[in-house]
Design goal:
Distance between the termini: 110 Å
Radius of gyration: 40 Å
Number of domains: 4
Strand content: 5-15%
Bound molecules: zinc ion
CATH architecture of the largest domain: 3-Layer(aba) Sandwich
CATH class of the largest domain: Alpha Beta
Number of strands: 12
CATH topology of the largest domain: Rossmann fold
Helix content: 40-55%
Structural class: alpha/beta
């Protein structure tokens, strides 16, 4: 016997085995059970969603003498008679090849004769939108006054092409696309029945390729039957003629990294494999779409149904760009299809689009700008928090290197006395508002040496941050009443900031005590909060040598005018 294609071999023969059209099946079976059968039906929907199959089942069911739950029994005389393809009571016509008025006239003449041995004569007209205007008018006459024994089932993928006069005379059913899960289950059951071994992901990929059409999916499944012992994901990819995934991965990766030269290299390689620009851009868009799903959906793994190793690769790719960048790239590449219609140079169109997608800095689209702002924000945030990623450090080091100042861990023996205000009466000091723009100069400032490696640069950058903050606190301290001693002592100290914690390095135990003494600590903390600091730690800097008492030191500065706080 000749080989029967899977989609024909596994075509449903009763309502129960129809998948994905529950509402329609329920309405039709109810009509049969209640014997309220109409004379004209319109089945609309994409190809492979079961229109013709359901029409055939319905044609047999209306004639079956003992239907089971509305489905044809398959055993009665009517069922047996109609199972024979040469029967004359179910008449199928393909309007695509029989679209002339003569074809419809023939139907009009024949419809007058009653069916042979069954109750209804059923006309199934496929692709009915292909009929000419004259043919439609001829059909309309028949639909207006059909003989009692006639049922018309019109099937179409494009109901909007039908005249309103026809639409208004039909009971319309809209077939929806079949879900991925339903098609996957169907292919599995088919493979199980014919004894074909398969990988889960392979079947899911076949189902996905059907894009909602059972017939398309089963045709691919048919092609895969003879491939290998156990069907794998890669086998299906090969059958589908999908572009080499590694190359597409490489292309998208280089695109996100802005390596325009590499992107063009990949596109050249893919085109030279014989892939048309249209198909290639479709593959890239599908790839980007998967990345967008990974980026935005928590259950991306279930939606995409990719094998584990593939999903890991895709997730890594998705991490290279933010969602704005991915969506913008999809937009740019999808545009290729439109432009191809008006272009005689498809390669140029492809390459221009790829360059545009690789260089968001030349793109003034809002998504591209958002992507750039987001990158900048991330850089700023990591700088603020002092936690800097390796990549950002590399970028930032060049910019800040001259400004980095080095703070020696050792206490320097000769403090620079520079503040002229020190000559003034300390009582006056508290009345002097701090000059806004005056930069606090730490006791010792040395010009930075070239950082030896990235790690040095990081620690220096954090210290600069801490130094600015600490300088501000000390300046504020100078104008705080009754905190002169604290101010004098703090001038000698350094500090660093990590997150929202300020660490003050005292030179010796007595300095640490002074900081923690009475309300000194509260004063420091309340000033520091103004700089976004939540906690203060006091540590003694290792290698410190100073044993000077800060109170004695302050007295030395200010003489007897200084009141020592208790
Ligand atoms: Zn029957």
């Amino acid at each position: 016997m000749a080989y029967l294609a899977l989609y024909r071999r596994f075509r449903p023969t009763d309502f129960k085995s129809v998948i994905g059209q529950d509402t329609i099946v329920k309405t039709l079976t109810n009509q049969i059970i209640q014997d309220k059968i109409g004379h004209a039906y319109l089945f609309c929907g994409a190809r492979g969603t079961g229109k013709t199959s359901l029409a055939k089942i319905f044609a047999r069911a209306v004639n079956c003498t003992s239907p089971i739950d509305g489905s044809p029994c398959g055993k009665c005389d009517a069922c047996k008679m109609l199972a024979d393809p040469s029967n004359v009571d179910i008449i199928e016509m393909d309007a695509a090849s029989n679209n002339k008025v003569e074809n419809v006239r023939e139907i009009r003449e024949n419809v007058q004769y009653p069916p042979v041995g069954v109750r209804y004569k059923v006309y199934v007209i496929d692709e009915v939108h292909m009929l000419t205007t004259e043919a439609f008018n001829a059909l309309l006459k028949t639909l207006e006054e059909p003989p009692k024994h006639a049922i018309f089932i019109l099937a179409t993928t494009e109901p909007h092409k039908l005249p309103a006069t026809i639409l208004s005379r039909c009971m319309r059913f809209d077939f929806k696309l079949i879900s991925l899960q339903e098609i996957t289950a169907l292919i599995k059951s088919v493979y199980d029945e014919i004894g074909k071994a398969y990988e889960e992901e392979a079947v899911k990929l076949i189902a996905k390729s059907g894009e909602g059409s059972v017939r398309d999916a089963l045709s691919v499944a048919d092609l895969c039957v003879s491939v290998g012992d156990k069907l794998t994901y890669n086998d299906v990819l090969a059958v589908l003629g999908a572009t080499d995934l590694n190359k597409i991965d490489g292309l998208v990766k280089s695109m996100f990294l802005g390596e325009t030269g590499k992107v063009l290299g990949y596109s050249d390689e893919l085109c030279s494999l014989g892939k048309s620009v249209g198909l290639l851009s479709k593959d890239v868009v599908n790839h980007l779409r998967d990345l967008a799903i990974i980026k935005t959906c928590k259950n991306a793994k279930d939606i995409l149904a990719l094998p584990d190793d593939r999903f890991v690769v895709m997730s890594e790719l998705a991490n290279l760009a933010d969602e704005h960048r991915i969506l913008r790239s999809i937009e740019i590449i999808s545009e290729i299809e439109n432009q191809l219609r008006y272009s005689t140079q498809p390669r140029a169109v492809l390459e221009t689009a790829l360059i545009k997608a690789s260089m968001p800095e030349i793109d003034y689209n809002i998504d591209a700008l958002l992507a750039r702002i987001k990158t900048l924000e991330e850089e700023i945030n990591s700088l603020k928090s002092g936690v800097i990623g390796q990549k950002t450090v590399e970028k930032v080091v060049e910019r800040v290197v001259e400004k980095v100042v080095e703070v020696p861990a050792q206490k320097v023996t000769e403090p620079v006395k520079e503040e002229p205000v020190m000559e003034k009466d300390p009582k006056e000091l508290s009345l002097v508002p701090p000059p806004e723009d005056e930069e606090f100069i730490p006791p010792v400032v040395q010009k930075a040496k070239e950082p030896k490696n990235i790690a040095t640069a990081v620690s220096n950058t954090i210290t600069v941050d801490g130094k600015r903050c600490w300088g501000g606190i000390v300046r504020r301290l100078r104008t705080t009443p009754n905190k002169t001693i604290l101010w004098v002592a703090c001038q000698e100290m350094t500090a660093s900031v990590e997150g929202s914690t300020l660490t003050i390095y005292a030179s010796a135990e007595n300095e640490k005590k002074l900081l923690l003494q009475n309300d000194n600590f509260e004063t420091l903390l309340s000033i520091a909060k103004g700089f976004g600091i939540e906690n203060i730690k006091v540590e003694i800097r290792s290698g410190s040598v100073s044993q000077e008492d800060p109170i004695e030191k302050a007295k030395a500065f200010f003489g007897d005018t200084l009141k020592v706080e208790k």
